[in-house]
Design brief:
single chain, about 450 residues, alpha/beta, Rossmann fold, six-stranded mixed sheet, 8 helices, 16 strands
Length: about 450
């Protein structure tokens, strides 16, 4: 059977028509792609109309009752109120201030100005042994003769920040004993302690700042602190302007130009050399280094000396005030002449315009420290351990002072222990000067 061209043409036209119909329907069903949004200017802030200039502001918004054409404009509804952050108000004294951080939530700050006073106390019996087992009921504290309420009582030992001050002006035989005893210093300390070393002759010298008490640096520095000491000096009778005259006329000194060395003194005059013992300067240098240590540590200065003082730039009153302001306690071991029984007590008496034979006891009594007198190497070594034991077994008392925080005058402290069954000796500081560091 043959099919002609006339029979195929209608079928092809029908198929082509259906294809066009399907293509048109598919094009109509495809969603149109939207155009990108047109950039819009941000709406003006409420109350302004236009840009805002720093320090000047922006133009005021037009009135809702008029426009540029003079026709009434419909009133626009006010924008919904936005939640605003209201910062807390901090009250300081009689004024109120608002914190500057407006977008950060802050808690109220309460400021309380108090003056907390801490008093370390050592209690001994009549034989010099430490008394333990006391409670807060056994202590009574008076400040400026006013009874204080104890708010702190502790017997916990504290880590020590101890500054050693070694006198290198001692006689050579006494200095040799001190040199032999320095090896025992580290044995009295614990790994929690820290120590610094100072020496003095004519001025103070810092050998090392605070370092670990059990480290290798401390014994090496203590070895550097060893010195030869000094030997007794004889009166100066040499040929100089302050020496005795070699040529005399009727027992008097003639023209100095005729004398060897231009001497001007009478024949019987002897010029005693002046000794230099800058103990005040050495304690002050150690105290300045200690003042930077944390308050939680027990700040103490340990002096090994004969207590002589002459030639310091700082006075006793100035150094004492600095010690009492920064809560520093002075301990010491007396050696040499001041360590002898009886003679050490006589050395406490001072003649005006002369050298202090023993001023170390005044520092220990004022700051609540203790003083040992030793004459041999074994005794000096034991004194190191005794002082460390005292410092670790102290009673720590605390109270809030009734005095004004703005008063910087000296405040006396009297600590008493009520133990009627036995006689005890209470060792505590005699007072203090308030400092801004005490305000909390």
């Amino acid at each position: 059977m043959r099919v002609g061209r006339k029979a195929i043409a209608p079928a092809a036209i029908l198929v082509l028509g259906w294809s066009l119909v399907l293509a048109v329907s598919a094009q109509q069903q495809q969603p149109a792609v939207p155009d990108a949004p047109t950039p819009q200017a941000p709406p003006p802030l409420p109350g302004t109309n236009g840009p805002i200039t720093p320090g000047i502001g922006g133009p005021p918004a037009p009135s809702s009752s008029s426009s540029a054409t003079g026709q009434a404009q419909p009133e626009q509804p006010p924008p919904p109120p936005q939640p605003q952050y209201e910062p807390p108000v901090t009250q300081q004294g009689n004024t109120q201030t608002t914190p500057p951080d407006q977008g950060i939530t802050q808690l109220p700050l309460y400021v309380s100005r108090t003056n907390f006073v801490e008093v370390p106390v050592t209690v001994k019996d009549a034989k010099g042994n430490l008394v333990s087992g006391l409670t807060w009921r056994d202590f009574t504290v008076y400040e400026n003769n006013v009874l204080q309420h104890l708010s702190l009582f502790s017997v916990d030992p504290r880590a020590l920040s101890i500054a050693f001050v070694i006198d290198q002006t001692l006689p050579s035989n006494i200095m040799d004993k001190v040199n032999q005893s320095l090896a025992a210093v580290q044995g009295a300390l614990t790994p929690y302690d820290e120590a610094a070393v100072f020496t003095y002759t004519n001025g103070a010298r810092e050998l090392t700042g605070f370092t670990g008490a059990e480290g290798k640096r401390l014994p090496a520095v203590l070895a550097l602190a060893e010195a030869t000491g000094t030997d007794p000096m004889v009166p100066d009778n040499g040929q100089d302007p302050f020496s005795a005259c070699s040529l005399t006329v009727n027992g008097n000194c003639p023209d100095p130009n005729l004398q060897p060395g231009h001497s001007t003194q009478s024949p019987g005059w002897q010029n005693l050399p002046k000794e230099i013992h800058t103990l005040n300067d050495a304690i002050l240098a150690a105290a300045k280094e200690l003042s930077t240590r944390p308050k939680e540590r027990l700040r103490m200065i340990y002096v090994v000396s004969d207590g002589k003082e002459y030639g310091s730039k700082a006075t006793w009153q100035e150094v004492r005030r600095y010690l009492e302001t920064n809560k520093i306690t002075v301990y010491g071991t007396l050696v040499g002449d001041s360590a002898r029984w009886g003679e050490g007590w006589l050395d406490r008496f001072h003649l005006p315009f002369t050298m202090y034979d023993n001023i170390l006891y005044k520092y220990t009594a004022a700051t609540g420290g203790d003083l040992y007198s030793e004459g041999n190497v074994n005794g000096i070594e034991k004194s190191y351990a005794k002082v460390a034991e005292e410092a670790r077994t102290q009673y720590t008392l605390g109270y809030l002072s009734h005095e004004s925080i703005f008063d910087s005058k000296f405040r006396s402290i009297d600590v008493r222990v009520d133990r009627p069954e036995k006689e005890v000796v209470v060792i505590a500081k005699t007072g203090y000067y308030p400092s801004g560091q005490d305000y909390r």
